[in-house]
Amino acid sequence: ALQCGIVGLPNVGKSTLFNCLSNAKAQSANFPFCTIEPNVGVISIPDDRLIRLTELVKPQRIQPSVMEIVDIAGLVKGASKGEGLGNKFLSNIRETSAIIHVLRCFEDDNIVHVDGSVNPIRDKETIDIELQLKDLENVEARLQKAAKLAKIGKNPDAVRLTDVLGRYKEVLEQGKSARVVELSEADEKVAADLHLLTTKPILYVCNVDEASVVNGNVHVDAVREAVKNENAEVIVVGAGIEADIAELETYEEKQMFLEDLGLKEPGVNKLIKAAFRLLELETYFTAGVKEVRSWTYPKGAKAPQAAGVIHTDFEKGFIRAEVIKYEDFSNLGSEAACKEAGKMNVEGKEYVVQDGDIMHFRFNV
Ligand code: GDP
């Protein structure tokens, strides 16, 4: 399943954020969250298009796309060497597709900071170093094996892998994350199953106090500056205040408090959407009277691959796809109206699916 892991030092607000996400369910009955394990929740991706389609089609069921969020607590200095429950948590991270790194950007003398003061840049480095050390250990072990294979000869993959691992080792030893290494397509292929922690896509969440949710603060500025070359998104969320708001009874009350803060929607919504982008996923819809549903596929997927998300038979037996653009459906109001207006296209195997497409697959069984 699609999974994002929340990491960060203790007391930066990870579980508060996790709880906000779990309370996002109260925002809209259509976007449920359920906790499947104490630290794992499944959250639906907010999408206005799905709501619009539901209004038009009036289906029996509605099924949004979902994402699993894992609260990875217990990451501390020394985790890579097994400090605390370090190794267990690091293996939790290995299974996630992307990382949400929470940084404490709020001052509060009542909340102890493990290193004595609020300094998100130092905190980020502490976590980065643990992840890098773990990767270095992994890379070194793999490198020995790959180098042996490469020496025996007749194994071009091993030669290439040895080269890639060598480059990873070099940057990791310099205290950088493996994601800075640029790989060719052929490199990517041999490196695909390394699952390094520091090559995972990452986004940063600055957890701020109430007064800073709109414009940020000096800590947020420092974070933005520090990560500017990482090509990573930085999101500002007031987890504490949003957790309070999430406790409110009615939607109207929540909206009122959010507006008082200067927000249109909860910061966690921004976060969910950003995490979704981070995974390089897009959404297509199926819109039948039984069910209106959102499906996620890797950006750039062709029609058969996208069909395979529903069922492998759809991919194997793919014949063609009937495609309506979301805008057309929304404007014209129904599949029949789109057909009539010539807004339903028949596409073949080579069609690259576009975000928002409403798909109907034809296939052989
Ligand atoms: P974790 O250890 O990273 O999971 O941190 P927690 O979510 O347990 O938060 C640690 C403490 O900080 C709790 O007492 C929270 O209520 C508090 N906290 C979390 N976010 C904020 C915030 O934005 N502002 C303030 N003042 N306190 C917060």
From TrEMBL:
<dbReference type="GO" id="GO:0046872">
    <property type="term" value="F:metal ion binding"/>
</dbReference>
<dbReference type="InterPro" id="IPR004095">
    <property type="entry name" value="TGS"/>
</dbReference>
<dbReference type="GO" id="GO:0043023">
    <property type="term" value="F:ribosomal large subunit binding"/>
</dbReference>
<dbReference type="GO" id="GO:0016887">
    <property type="term" value="F:ATP hydrolysis activity"/>
</dbReference>
<comment type="similarity">
    <text>Belongs to the TRAFAC class OBG-HflX-like GTPase superfamily. OBG GTPase family. YchF/OLA1 subfamily.</text>
</comment>
<keyword id="KW-0067">ATP-binding</keyword>
<dbReference type="Pfam" id="PF06071">
    <property type="entry name" value="YchF-GTPase_C"/>
</dbReference>
<protein>
    <recommendedName>
        <fullName>Ribosome-binding ATPase YchF</fullName>
    </recommendedName>
</protein>
<feature type="domain" description="TGS">
    <location>
        <begin position="280"/>
        <end position="363"/>
    </location>
</feature>
<feature type="domain" description="OBG-type G">
    <location>
        <begin position="2"/>
        <end position="280"/>
    </location>
</feature>
<dbReference type="InterPro" id="IPR041706">
    <property type="entry name" value="YchF_N"/>
</dbReference>
<keyword id="KW-0460">Magnesium</keyword>
<dbReference type="InterPro" id="IPR006073">
    <property type="entry name" value="GTP-bd"/>
</dbReference>
<dbReference type="InterPro" id="IPR004396">
    <property type="entry name" value="ATPase_YchF/OLA1"/>
</dbReference>
<dbReference type="GO" id="GO:0005525">
    <property type="term" value="F:GTP binding"/>
</dbReference>
<keyword id="KW-0547">Nucleotide-binding</keyword>
<dbReference type="InterPro" id="IPR012675">
    <property type="entry name" value="Beta-grasp_dom_sf"/>
</dbReference>
<dbReference type="GO" id="GO:0005737">
    <property type="term" value="C:cytoplasm"/>
</dbReference>
<dbReference type="InterPro" id="IPR031167">
    <property type="entry name" value="G_OBG"/>
</dbReference>
<comment type="function">
    <text>ATPase that binds to both the 70S ribosome and the 50S ribosomal subunit in a nucleotide-independent manner.</text>
</comment>
<dbReference type="InterPro" id="IPR023192">
    <property type="entry name" value="TGS-like_dom_sf"/>
</dbReference>
<dbReference type="InterPro" id="IPR013029">
    <property type="entry name" value="YchF_C"/>
</dbReference>
<dbReference type="Pfam" id="PF01926">
    <property type="entry name" value="MMR_HSR1"/>
</dbReference>
<keyword id="KW-0479">Metal-binding</keyword>
<dbReference type="InterPro" id="IPR027417">
    <property type="entry name" value="P-loop_NTPase"/>
</dbReference>
<dbReference type="GO" id="GO:0005524">
    <property type="term" value="F:ATP binding"/>
</dbReference>
<feature type="binding site">
    <location>
        <begin position="11"/>
        <end position="16"/>
    </location>
    <ligand>
        <name>ATP</name>
    </ligand>
</feature>
<dbReference type="InterPro" id="IPR012676">
    <property type="entry name" value="TGS-like"/>
</dbReference>
